[in-house]
Write a structure and sequence with these properties.
2 domains; about 375 residues; Thrombin, subunit H; disordered N terminus; globular; 4 helices; mainly beta; four-stranded antiparallel sheet; Methylamine Dehydrogenase, Chain H
């Protein structure tokens, strides 16, 4: 894996720096640190000021996650926050709730956490050790099939390496369509699937056309359609509920960090240098969208009839189905934001390298062309 780590070193100094911290540490060095999978997160009165990477709504509650297993909750639209403890101290990279109570978070060391009470308590459903072993088991079975090809053998070798390396690979994104069905993706092509709410997880790495093991940064689904996006312009699609996947022709060779499906079903992808593309035919063809702020886009979220994008500088932009141009909604705050969500009171709440911030945007759905400054209230 040392060769791959060397090739990935450039990602340790940019948009994905925090997300990929685990990748930039060799297995030998990582082994010297306490096993964060087995250590509960540390409670701190300053948790809401920690580096936070993702935020989601659980009904009337906001849930944000970040470094060292920090999870903070707000019941007043982001004005005040309190920390809850989780069973790991791994950095958490993404969080999603499918209703007011059921949610999942993923992160470093291959961890997947579940909450059934709006983020108040969490259980560990999967970690990197079990994920690697699951992939090895599946790869061994596939290699013994009568029609096994060279690809099956390559998968087996890669799976054996996963087990040998230990739980040093992070999950970077997740997508649940309901309380039962979800997908988690991450570094080196990690893909895990559940159909029972996370009680069990299966490796889907053998289904994904990603021979190089490129990092997967984003995933989205709607019905039987799945879309995955990652480094070096990697775009993957399934139109049959995950039974088969195909690699799409990418309009861009750079890395994609964000992916969203708009209210009309169009596929939107964003990545390095502010490049944004849209497909109205399920990914067969893409058109470039105009982004007046050529800064890398780290996250995207659909809110009503629009998609909000957060760029590396902390700016927030909006795209709508009837426009081919992104509209700046908020100019950068200091420090940068990593994600935003619409709060129950209609405001926009962001998280980033200095924790949480209520943004000075009174109506997320406003259509004014005048950008507002994103500052903490």
């Amino acid at each position: 894996m040392a060769r791959r780590l060397k090739n990935k070193s450039l990602y340790c100094n940019g948009l994905a720096g925090v997300l990929l911290m685990a990748i930039c540490v060799s297995p030998g060095v990582a082994a010297q640190f306490p096993d964060v999978i087995d250590q509960r997160s540390v409670l701190s009165t300053q948790a809401s000021h920690a580096t936070l990477l993702s935020i989601a709504r659980a009904g009337e509650r906001l849930v944000a996650v970040g470094e060292r297993g920090v999870v903070v909750l707000s019941d007043d639209s982001g004005r005040t926050w309190r920390q809850v403890q989780v069973p790991v101290s791994s950095t958490l990279t993404a969080v999603q709730f499918v209703n007011s109570r059921q949610g999942w978070a993923v992160g470093h060391s291959g961890v997947i956490l579940h909450s059934g009470d709006a983020g108040q308590s969490w259980t560990l459903q999967l970690d990197g050790r079990r994920a690697a072993q699951q992939e090895l088991n599946d790869a061994q079975t596939a290699a013994l099939e009568p029609n096994a090809d060279e690809g099956a053998q390559r998968r087996l070798v890669a799976a054996q390496r996963l087990v040998t390396d230990g739980p040093d690979k992070p999950f970077l994104a997740l997508s649940f369509s309901d309380t039962m069905h979800g997908l988690a993706v991450g570094a080196y092509g990690l893909v895990m699937r559940t159909e029972d709410g996370g009680m069990t997880w299966q490796s889907w790495m053998g289904r994904i056309p990603n021979i190089q093991g490129l990092h997967l940064y984003a995933v989205a689904q709607a019905g039987d359609r799945y879309y995955l996006a990652g480094e070096q312009g990697l775009l993957i699609r399934s139109l049959d509920g995950g039974k088969s996947f195909e690699k799409l022709d990418s309009p861009y060779e750079g890395t994609y960090f964000s992916l969203a499906l708009d209210s009309d079903g169009a596929v939107l992808i964003g990545g390095l240098r502010g490049n944004v593309f849209r497909s109205r035919d399920q990914g067969n063809n893409f058109e470039a969208m105009n982004n007046p702020v050529p800064v890398s886009l780290g996250s995207a979220i659909r809110i009503g009839q629009q998609v909000l994008w957060v760029n590396q500088a902390g700016g927030v932009l909006r795209s709508t189905g009837d426009s081919s141009t992104l509209q700046p909604l908020a100019t950068p705050a200091a420090p940068a934001l990593t994600a935003v969500v619409d709060a129950p009171d209609g405001s926009l709440v962001g998280v980033g390298f200095a924790g949480t911030a209520r943004l000075a945007i009174s109506n997320v759905n406003a259509t004014s062309s005048n950008p507002e400054r994103a500052v903490a209230e």
